[in-house]
Amino acid sequence: MAVQWRRGVRAAGVLVALTTTVGLAGCAGQPGAAAVVDGTAIPTSDVEAALTELLPWFQGVTTTNVLSVLIQEPTVVDLAEEKGVGVSDEEAQALLDQVVKQKSPDATATFTEPSLAVARYSIAYSNLEDVPNPSAVGEEIDSRLRALDIEVNPRFASLEDGFQVGPPARPSWLVGSGSGAVEDSAPQPTPEPTPSAS
Question: pTM of the predicted model, to two decimals?
Fold first, then answer.
C-alpha cells in the first residue's frame, strides 16, 4: 500500500499505518540502505528502529509503509512549514507519548529519530489537510514527490508510478502461487510422529 494524500488522517489518534521487518541488502550501491532519495540514504537500521519502537503501539505497522513515510517525511514536513503549519520534534514526541499512554497508562517508551520522523510526518500531513484548498496542497505534494530521484531496495519495497512505495515485487525467478507480493517461502517443519500405544 502506498502512502498517498488522502482525507481523514488525524494526528491525535492515528499515525499513518506502518510493516514487519525483513533483512535487507544495500540499495543502489549503498550498503545498508533501504532507499536512496536524491542521493541521501535511508538506512535499513532507521526502518528497523521505527518498526521496533512503533509496532507495540500501532496496529498494521509494515516495512513498506514505514519506508514510504521516511521517504516522504522531509517533503511533507517542509511543505507544512512553508504553509505555516509546521511541526516540531517536541510535538512529535508528545504525539507518540500520547499514543503510549492511551494504550497503556502506566507504560513508558523511548523513541529515536526514525520514529519521531514518522510522528512529524503524521502531524504535518494532518496539518496540511486543514489549510485552505487542501486539494491544491495534495497536488503540490504529488508534484514534489514525483520530482524526487527515489531508489528503493527491492527486498524492501517496489516503486510504483515513479514515486509511490509499494510492497516488494515477486521476483520472476520465484516459482509458486501468489499475486506478485513476495511470500514467506520457508519450508514448513515436518510433524513429529505421535507415539502409539502398544
Answer: 0.72
- Domain locations in the chain? 33-166
Handedness of CA 106, 122, 4, 63 (dihedral sign): negative
CA triple 26-182-155, angle to 5 deg = 5
- CA distance linking residue 116 with residue 46, whole number of Å: 11
Q: How far apart are CA 37 and CA 124, in angstroms?
A: 20
Angle between helices 63-82 and 134-147 in degrees, nearest 10: 120
- Write out pLDDT tens, residues 57-112: 998 899 999 999 999 999 999 999 999 999 999 999 999 999 999 999 999 999 99
Q: Which three cell numbers stand for residue 155?
A: 527486498
